[in-house]
Amino acid sequence: KSILEKDPSIHQAREACMRLPKQIEERNERLKEEMLGKLKDLGNLVLRPFGLSTENFQIKQDSSTGSYSINFVQNPNNNR
């Protein structure tokens, strides 16, 4: 962006400013999904000795306040 601000006639800089934000967003989404998957695996590793998994917990967001509540579900496969 700084190159484009200094010299708007540089076509490559303009093209990169159009292309890169989407690529960055896609990369960030992939990284976020990977991180959440690894956190879920870690949670399952910790919960497994107790006969539980992350599927035993439901997270719901309150749309009015933005806060989250976590509910325990005894049989997660039966409640779907």
From TrEMBL:
It comes from the Eukaryota. This is Tetratricopeptide repeat protein 1-like protein. It comes from Callithrix jacchus (White-tufted-ear marmoset).
